[in-house]
């Protein structure tokens, strides 16, 4: 994808074909192919004869310098490597590869992208990823205690992301167990945590985070659940500001996780629980368990009051749904 062409069109104004060709460093004939590639990537282009071309609404493009310039000093000191890519299949996958090759204890590898072609959430569900419209972010961190030391991490990350949103003026975000960020029961974002290495000893954790920021109309047909985005909350931060705010909260969490664990985050998670004391169903494969949601235990397992008493359920293939 031609970055020079994108940078010119990002302002949302009209540009003639010749001006675009000059900016992209190609011929007037070749510029049509470049514009077609942008359309194939899902970018909403508008063309008017004798006027030119524009991206409807413009684009908020990312650069690594923009992100690094917006993070606070604490977060910056914890970043070992930061990549901002145009397009990739999955930021989590690339982050996992980078952690396998060059993980440094106490330093994060951060990967973001303008677009994912194979983004996914829990249980392999596809994550709709229009170009330069949302936040697609992965953070890799090395841990010494193995998988057992990470109980409750996805819930704590959810609290950190909500606090990052609050810093930017989104005051109504809540959490749905185990890893969804919601506003009035509409999905705003999600978290996907993956591990590589020795599950019983030193290993790498990759925290994938996605947030809907400014979802375009053309991408909405691919979403099979109630959703919302940051712009619909009445605030319009740049995506660099949003990523920086998330890193400001998530990186110190990871730095101190093994010594502190989930305990300091449990009360905050309970306060943000979107379904506390509400009737819900727990889905496990073909099984469905009805009850009342009673928050999470000390390990982050969801607690459901059923006809058999209070039961706890851990993540994995377990999902929570509100009763109709």
From TrEMBL:
<keyword id="KW-0067">ATP-binding</keyword>
<dbReference type="InterPro" id="IPR036388">
    <property type="entry name" value="WH-like_DNA-bd_sf"/>
</dbReference>
<keyword id="KW-0547">Nucleotide-binding</keyword>
<dbReference type="InterPro" id="IPR011991">
    <property type="entry name" value="ArsR-like_HTH"/>
</dbReference>
<feature type="DNA-binding region" description="H-T-H motif">
    <location>
        <begin position="17"/>
        <end position="36"/>
    </location>
</feature>
<comment type="similarity">
    <text>Belongs to the biotin--protein ligase family.</text>
</comment>
<dbReference type="InterPro" id="IPR030855">
    <property type="entry name" value="Bifunct_BirA"/>
</dbReference>
<keyword id="KW-0804">Transcription</keyword>
<dbReference type="InterPro" id="IPR008988">
    <property type="entry name" value="Transcriptional_repressor_C"/>
</dbReference>
<dbReference type="InterPro" id="IPR004143">
    <property type="entry name" value="BPL_LPL_catalytic"/>
</dbReference>
<protein>
    <recommendedName>
        <fullName>Bifunctional ligase/repressor BirA</fullName>
        <ecNumber>6.3.4.15</ecNumber>
    </recommendedName>
</protein>
<keyword id="KW-0238">DNA-binding</keyword>
<keyword id="KW-0678">Repressor</keyword>
<dbReference type="InterPro" id="IPR036390">
    <property type="entry name" value="WH_DNA-bd_sf"/>
</dbReference>
<feature type="binding site">
    <location>
        <begin position="120"/>
        <end position="122"/>
    </location>
    <ligand>
        <name>biotin</name>
    </ligand>
</feature>
<dbReference type="InterPro" id="IPR013196">
    <property type="entry name" value="HTH_11"/>
</dbReference>
<feature type="binding site">
    <location>
        <begin position="90"/>
        <end position="92"/>
    </location>
    <ligand>
        <name>biotin</name>
    </ligand>
</feature>
<dbReference type="Pfam" id="PF03099">
    <property type="entry name" value="BPL_LplA_LipB"/>
</dbReference>
<feature type="binding site">
    <location>
        <position position="116"/>
    </location>
    <ligand>
        <name>biotin</name>
    </ligand>
</feature>
<dbReference type="GO" id="GO:0005737">
    <property type="term" value="C:cytoplasm"/>
</dbReference>
<keyword id="KW-0805">Transcription regulation</keyword>
<feature type="binding site">
    <location>
        <position position="187"/>
    </location>
    <ligand>
        <name>biotin</name>
    </ligand>
</feature>
<dbReference type="GO" id="GO:0004077">
    <property type="term" value="F:biotin--[biotin carboxyl-carrier protein] ligase activity"/>
</dbReference>
<dbReference type="Pfam" id="PF08279">
    <property type="entry name" value="HTH_11"/>
</dbReference>
<dbReference type="Pfam" id="PF02237">
    <property type="entry name" value="BPL_C"/>
</dbReference>
<dbReference type="InterPro" id="IPR045864">
    <property type="entry name" value="aa-tRNA-synth_II/BPL/LPL"/>
</dbReference>
<dbReference type="GO" id="GO:0006355">
    <property type="term" value="P:regulation of DNA-templated transcription"/>
</dbReference>
<keyword id="KW-0436">Ligase</keyword>
<dbReference type="GO" id="GO:0005524">
    <property type="term" value="F:ATP binding"/>
</dbReference>
<dbReference type="InterPro" id="IPR004408">
    <property type="entry name" value="Biotin_CoA_COase_ligase"/>
</dbReference>
<comment type="function">
    <text>Acts both as a biotin--[acetyl-CoA-carboxylase] ligase and a biotin-operon repressor. In the presence of ATP, BirA activates biotin to form the BirA-biotinyl-5'-adenylate (BirA-bio-5'-AMP or holoBirA) complex. HoloBirA can either transfer the biotinyl moiety to the biotin carboxyl carrier protein (BCCP) subunit of acetyl-CoA carboxylase, or bind to the biotin operator site and inhibit transcription of the operon.</text>
</comment>
<dbReference type="InterPro" id="IPR003142">
    <property type="entry name" value="BPL_C"/>
</dbReference>
<dbReference type="GO" id="GO:0003677">
    <property type="term" value="F:DNA binding"/>
</dbReference>
<keyword id="KW-0092">Biotin</keyword>
């Amino acid at each position: 994808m031609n970055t020079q062409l994108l940078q010119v069109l990002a302002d949302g104004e009209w540009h003639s074909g010749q001006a675009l060709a000059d900016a992209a460093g190609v011929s007037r004939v070749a510029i049509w192919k470049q514009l077609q590639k942008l359309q194939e990537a899902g970018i909403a282009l508008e063309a008017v004869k004798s006027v030119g071309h524009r991206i409807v609404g413009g684009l908020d493009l990312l650069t690594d310098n923009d992100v690094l310039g917006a993070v606070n000093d604490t977060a910056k000191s914890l970043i070992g490597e930061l990549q901002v890519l145009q397009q990739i299949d999955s930021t989590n996958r690339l982050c996992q590869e980078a952690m396998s090759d060059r993980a440094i204890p106490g330093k994060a590898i951060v990967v973001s992208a303008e677009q994912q072609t194979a983004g996914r959430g829990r249980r392999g569900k596809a994550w709709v990823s229009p170009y330069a419209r949302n936040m697609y972010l992965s953070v890799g961190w090395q841990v010494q205690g193995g998988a057992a030391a990470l109980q409750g991490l996805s819930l704590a990350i959810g609290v950190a992301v909500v606090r990052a949103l609050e810093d930017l003026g989104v005051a109504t975000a809540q959490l749905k167990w185990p890893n969804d960020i919601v506003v009035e029961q509409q999905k705003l974002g999600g978290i996907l945590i993956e591990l590589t290495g020795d599950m019983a000893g030193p290993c790498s954790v990759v925290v994938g985070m996605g947030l809907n920021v400014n979802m375009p109309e053309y991408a909405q047909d691919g979403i099979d659940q109630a959703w919302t985005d940051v712009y619909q909350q009445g605030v319009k931060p740049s995506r660099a500001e949003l990523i920086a705010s998330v890193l400001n909260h998530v990186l110190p969490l990871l730095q101190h996780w093994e010594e502190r664990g989930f305990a300091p985050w449990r009360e905050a998670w309970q306060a943000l629980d979107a379904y506390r004391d509400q009737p819900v169903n727990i889905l496990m494969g073909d099984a469905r368990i009805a009850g009342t949601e009673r928050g999470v235990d000390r390990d982050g397992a969801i607690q459901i009051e059923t006809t058999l008493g209070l039961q706890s359920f851990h993540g994995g293939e377990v999902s929570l749904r509100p009763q109709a």
